[in-house]
Amino acid sequence: MNNKKKLIGILSSLVAIAIAFSGIAYAEKKGLKTTNGNDLGNNELKSITLETWDNTEWEVFTDKDSELPDNYGKKPYKKDLAPSTQSMRQVKLLNGYPRDVKYIDLSKDKEKAKVLAVKFHFTFPGNNEVTIRPPRTADFIINRPRMFINDNAFSNTEAQKAPEKRDINNVNIQPIYGVELPGVTKSMSVWVLGRGIDYILEGWFEDYKGDTHVIKFGSVNFVGWRPMTAVIPANIPQFVEAYPATKSLVFKQFKLRSTPKTGGDITYLFFDELKILADTFDVHFDGANLDFDPEDCSNKQRVEEVEAKAKGIKPVKDCGNSGGAKSAPAAEKK
Q1: How many other C-beta atoms can be found within 10 angstroms of the C-beta atom of residue 199?
Q2: Which residues are within 8 A (CB) of 84 and not within 5 positions of it... i.e. 6 or more apart?
Q3: Cβ neighbours of residue 334 under 8 Å, at least 6 residues apart?
Q4: How many CB atoms lie within 10 A of CB 84?
Q5: How many CB atoms lie within 10 A of CB 179?
């Protein structure tokens, strides 16, 4: 009997050692190889608030609207669009907050605490859809570096007539609308006040390659305030082996979809406290402050810049003194 216990103990120890070595191997694979050894990827988890809706009203529209806006602001969104024969929708900011959110500091700005209030109604049951997204304003434009050269810089008429006018600093930049998420995002949460109408809440995310990922938060078929969470799957790319290693996601929009059980009642929903849990760790090595140009500096400091924007503070520029980051592109000089 004692021998059996000893054997079980030895086997348990071997399994523990194997798991430890596999963890080290994973860390070695995730880390960046430098001349000073591998800078391993350690977890630096932070809870970051992205939106409180205290000041910014987001756009809300349905798939049954008589006029639908596009994704790029060329076909503008109309807040006060008249109801169609199939749907109506309204949105506004209202005073309030979830009482169960203990981390909200109401000692100073209790009167300024607001929530995003949404009202919509469909004439017919079936496949109905509501979109809730950031407004198409300059505050939500994100210039995303792409792995490919943007052919818009070469194929437009002006560039074809005058190739010398091509902007070399923007050949791989793609502007999109959304909220950039600092670090490697593990999960996203939002507080929702429901009134017992069965719609499925989705979050749409775009990775650094330009691919869209739809992740479900779940059904809003409940009454009262409730935090809803979406876990970001590990197969969504947010990390590469090259430096800078972090390739942040962009949150594009919420979608609400009806189900076969969804009734025909007028729907009221309220949103507050959009947060993420993210790993903001990045590698450090000798020479990291050497910048080729402002784009290089910005790409390296993207995590710090996005995190500062989420906190409403100015990012600390820590670019090198090589002179590369001082040569601003033509667009920035203006």
Answers
A1: 22
A2: 64, 65, 66
A3: none
A4: 14
A5: 22
Beta strands in 220-266 (DSSP E): 223-231, 250-258
Residues near 253 by Cβ (< 8 Å), separated by ≥ 6?
A: 131, 132, 133, 134, 178, 203, 204
- Element at 15 (helix H, strand E): helix 2-30
Q: Which residues pair with 251 in a beta bridge?
A: 179, 205
Residue 57 and residue 26: Cα distance in Å, rounded? Answer: 43
Strands (E), 35-80: 37-39, 45-51, 59-62
Counting every residue written for the chain, the total comes to 334
pTM for this model (two decimals): 0.77
Burial class (CB within 10 angstroms; exposed 0-12, middle 13-18, buried 19+) of 279: buried
CB-CB neighbours of 81 under 10 Å: 18
**Distance (Å, rounded) from C-alpha 17 to C-alpha 40?**
19
210-245 residue pLDDT tens = 899 999 999 999 999 999 999 999 999 887 777 767
Looking at residue 184, its amino acid is: V
Q: Which residues contact 177 (CB under 8 A, 6 or more apart)?
A: 71, 72, 73, 133, 134, 136, 140, 141, 142, 252
Of 257, 116, 259, nearest in space to 190 by CA: 116
Instruction: Report the pLDDT value the prediction gives residue 238, as an integer from 0 to 100.
Output: 85
Amino acid at 90: Q
Question: Is-contact 64 128, C-beta < 8 A?
Answer: yes
Query: What does the block give as tokens for 172?
Result: 């791989």
